[in-house]
Design brief:
This protein folds into 2 domains: 2-36; 50-205, Glucose Permease (Domain IIA). It contains 3 helices and 14 strands. The chain has helices at 2-19, 24-36, 116-119; strands spanning 50-52, 57-67, 73-82, 89-91, 96-104, 122-129, 136-143, 150-152, 159-160, 165-169, 173-180, 185-187, 194-195, 201-205. Helix 1 (2-19) runs antiparallel to helix 2. 38% of the residues are buried.
Length: 206
């Protein structure tokens, strides 16, 4: 971000010197970059059995699927599409222990497409939830057509709290929440709903 901001400032100076009416272009770009990297404080709602959104954006899919890497079985998947205007900080949906990180190289298709879930570059964070059954949760960070860098700020063996920052995906992308089907998870969101990381309740585990 710092390098890009410096480039925009230099470009603004050069444009101002050459033809000042065009100076608004790099200024607007700089404002957008600063806005993109915003990181607002969020307070996770109380409730031992609720899961919160791992990302800001729009819910584009709710389905039951196989998750072979960490849950190793059937899971409820809730997919969130992040536009370039959303906050891109990812947060933990629950408190627990990071048991597994799984990076997969791939393509950079439009993250709004369902195929991006299977084909795009991604990073999965497997969390064992703090409950009697050690419910397994996965937060999957998926790159998009513009996003080319996935940042994960946690490591295997780390303990995370509900709503805690665990990484970000730079520019438009997709984040998925997987909950083991054995957990009897009841989603409280619907396709088309806008959610906020760390504060929107995604559902409750019975």
């Amino acid at each position: 971000m710092l390098i890009f901001s410096i480039v925009l400032v230099v470009l603004g100076v050069l444009v101002c010197w050459a033809y000042w009416p065009l100076v608004f272009v790099p200024v607007l770009l700089l404002a957008w970059v600063i806005s993109f990297f915003r990181d607002p404080e969020r307070k996770a709602p109380d409730g031992k059995n609720i899961l919160v959104a791992p990302a800001d954006g729009k819910v584009v899919e709710i389905a039951e699927v196989d998750e072979p890497n960490f849950i190793q079985g059937r899971a409820i998947r809730i997919s969130i599409f992040l536009s370039v205007f959303n906050v891109h900080i990812n947060r933990s949906p629950c408190s627990g222990l990071v048991r597994k990180l799984h990076y997969r190289p791939g393509r950079f298709r439009n993250a709004l497409l369902a195929a991006s879930s299977e084909e795009n570059e991604s990073n999965s964070i497997g969390i064992e939830r703090d409950d009697a059954g050690s419910t397994r949760i996965v937060v999957r960070q998926i790159a998009g057509a513009i996003a080319r860098r996935i940042v994960c700020s946690c490591n295997e063996g780390d303990r995370v709290k509900k709503g805690e920052r665990v990484g970000m995906i730079k520019f438009g992308s997709r984040t998925e929440l997987y909950v083991s089907a054995d957990a009897r998870f009841k989603p409280e969101v619907h396709v088309g709903q806008n959610v906020k990381a760390g504060s929107t309740v995604m559902g409750e585990i019975e």
